[in-house]
Structures
1.
Amino acid sequence: MSVRETLPRSGSSAVEETQPLDLEGVDSQDERTARLDTGDERTQVQPVPAPPADAAERERRRREREKALGTRRKNTEPEPVAVAPKPKRTTDKFLGSLGLLLLRLVAAGIIGIHGYAKAMDIGSVQQMLNNTIIPEPVIMSYVLAASEVAIALALVLGLLTRLAGLGLAAIGIGALVFVKWVQNPFTGNTLSGELELLLGAVGLLFLCVGAGGASVDAAFRRRRAAAKA
């Protein structure tokens, strides 16, 4: 294809024909080159590759490229971890709950009777505390009587059982240290303070294991677990 152009020459009215402009198509549709020759100047248009048609085409090309290179796309998502169900506490099973319930009722009966007796005869309690190194015998007598009654109620209901066990252990061990075992605890063939020793041990048991399944504490614990789930 040729195109002729006419340009006016300065200082002359003649019209001179310039060299023809040749445009030639090359090779393929994806690579197109146009060359413009005017005298000594040469301009060349570089081929521009056509962009992928859409995202699917780009993904297809990427897979072909990875397949050719023998590479795989790494999976960055963490594998799901199976969470094992939390095992049921032994103390929440039938026999454990029944045993702790019976022990709570027996301990509550003993400590409750002692607390009621102290409240009815507070003068004898004050006189007993006067013979020890415990300060403020009058105040401590009322505190001791009220504490024993409160511990008995807590053990019956199974409410704040660990705290009640701590109080029961403190009362039993305190009675041994400040009253029963001030002198030689062995009188003849017997050991003084057997009841207080037993109550102290039972209190430590409740402090360690709690009230068991048949208690208010266990009901609160199950409700919290259901709320979290």
Note: The beta strands are 6-8, 15-17, 35-38, 41-44, 186-187, 190-191.
2.
Amino acid sequence: MRHRFISKTAGILTAAAVGLAYVPFSVESGSAAAEEEQITLEQQFQQTQLSDLLGLAGITLQAYSVQSAGADHGLTDETVQILDVDHSGQLEIEDAMCFLSWYSDFFASGTLPPAAIQFLNTWSADPIETTAPVTTTTTTPTTTTTTTTTTAATTAATTTATTTVTTTTTITITTVPSTVTATATIPSNSGTSTLTTLSSETETETTTVSDTETTTSTSTTTTAPITTVTTTASTASVTGKWPVKSSYQGIDVSKYQKNINWTSVKNAGNEFAIIRAGYGKYASQKDPYFDQNMKNAQKAGIACGAYWFSYAESVADARQEAEVFAQVVQGYQFEYPLVFDIEAPVHAKMTMAQVSAITRAFCETMESKGYYVSVYSYASFLNTKLDASIFEDYDIWVAHFGVSSPSFSKAKYGMWQYSSTGSVSGISGNVDMDYSYQCYPNIMLRAKLNGF
């Protein structure tokens, strides 16, 4: 579920120019190499350093071109997961643009942006460090500085643990930033989502990458104090009445997280999970891990919702997608909404009226089957592609990363996806992180929705 990078100034234009100069050369020389040495796109990737952002952009664009022509790009699932920066589930031009955007920042300022550092930390053999401590501060909406005895209906207690980590790493870049400070204050959503109609509504993204023309090898050592604030999960059972709080911590997952230890996820403080059921308009596009994730998550005591990533190009397509979604989720009970994920490139090219009609067709179809639906997209898409009637009738789940609160004020949102690079015990690699501001389990139980 995916973050979109906004167009940048001169730095971006420079990076794009460099990227365009690189890509044709890369594709042509790659074709010649393939004829003489049979070098596949996967082999090109294996021979490319992750710090070579322009190289990664070129490979991503080649893979997208081959894929668009209806051929198999030959990249492994693991490679696709690395290059799929926005976690849309497939390689898009937006992924390449993300790499180029990172490069533009570096080209203009000589400093890698935090998102690029997170990418390298996630996928490099050794994490990249800076020459000064990297401090990450997270404030949860319900954190308190005093010790208080609470009942089941109040906010769970929070604990703070401080760990000092010392590592040494080597990465090939021109320079590294001297200091990176990322501070995120997570406020609660001041209002509530529309509940009067008891309605509700995930795979594309943007990428910016870059590489240095002249590189040197730099070895750095950093001691980084890491402060983590953890909120314990609700003690209520999945199907019982839940204590009402100002916010709840959760995640959203798909096949890209593969096998998940849901007990560890629960013990790490996560109270809910939105699980991908599939995408498109055919039953064959069901997420292969959906059933496994649903059964194991519910067994661990985690409240679940599900989402469907849309590629609908018409109202008829949207209704067909909803019918398939309903077939896939049949037989399950969901404490959280069933979500319509609309953000694909095809939708970005449509008018507000077209996107709104598609969204309403999907949501109305799911509502007619007794489901509470929510609409998910990134903040700028919600701001420009959906009309006011959608916000009046349906619950909203907004995605916006690296900010203290989403840049979305047209309606009260029920959930916020605040990161795509979270780390959770029980899950290997990155995972999307979310806050919920509604006690959805109690809503479903009272209204007898979502299989209850």
Note: The chain is about 35% helix and 20% strand.
3.
Amino acid sequence: MSYSYPIDETYWSKEEIIDVVNFYSMVEQAYESGVKQDELLLAYTRFKQIVPSKSEEKQLCSQFEKESGYSCYRTVNQAKSAASGEKISMK
């Protein structure tokens, strides 16, 4: 990994930063090895509690995709349409 996660250190607490990084990490796992649907959606729910603004979410996820090549949007959409407990793989 030769990129950094888009985080807001000025407004987010240490716990919130950890939770946002966890969400980005789950998206990475979906591309690299697969991740359980329910775990990804739980991480996304927590991400949305920290980043409730749709425009801020789009900005952060766009920045993450530009850095990593991994799409939060496509990954979460696939997880939402998958059966509960199914493994999400974006390969």
Note: The mean pLDDT is 95.
4.
Amino acid sequence: MGLIVLAACCSVLVSVLLKVLKSKGFEPLQLIVWNYVSASLLCFLWFQPDIAHLSVQHTPWWLIIVLAMALPSVFLLLAKSLQHAGIVKTELAQRLSVVLSLLAAFFIFHEAMSTFKVLGMGLGLIAVALIVMSKTEHVSVNHRKAWSGLVGVWAGYALIDILLKYTSSLGLKLPMTLNLVFILAFVFSFVYVYVFAKQNMQIKNVLGGLLLGGFNFANIALYVQAHVLLKDSPAIVFAGMNLLVVVFGVLSGMIIFKERTDWKAVLGLILGVLGILCLAKAM
């Protein structure tokens, strides 16, 4: 259980750090670029993927490239949502992206549906609608940017999850996929930020990005390790991770950023938690 707690802490720390650094004048785009340097290095050292036996011919490069472009794009949407919608609603939207993933699993991968899955997805969809419509104090009052950021995070993380599942169905293992995606995400985002956007490289953004990438990868590694150690209890890992992230997100939003939400967000939070419990029950 300790691994799940640490993974949840790292997940929320990524959001907290991104929000704090943005408020301190750091450039989110540059943070995203350099985050993939430390993430790819740590991924290689931790998982030790067998790159020597990588089949260039049989690797689904189009899928890797799509993922490599999707990751930094969703990260940028995360920064936008944190700024305009707040950390409480952003973390809940990110966690409820599992609803779209399950819908895709049903329609695309033909997974079986159960009563608890349907109930969990229904509660999740209502929860997302409520948090998108709700208002949060002490964050930007630009509601259009807030709801577009939330919907982007919700749909974006679901898309990444779906693409990763599809990649694994083609035979490419997760460590190899992550390493290739992180490396290409760095290349694509570097070219975009420093060549096309012509931003000036700043050492503070490089260091901040490397730190961000450390927490970003730690979240992934600890979550995967928890699934390995508790391979007979995937529901515990799934429910524990998602619920702890929501709880830590709420606490950090209220304590660190002084966010206050209306009744719609509170009801959405409750329904979201119930939805996660139903989905865990279905596993």
Note: Residues 23 and 206 are 16 Å apart (CA to CA).
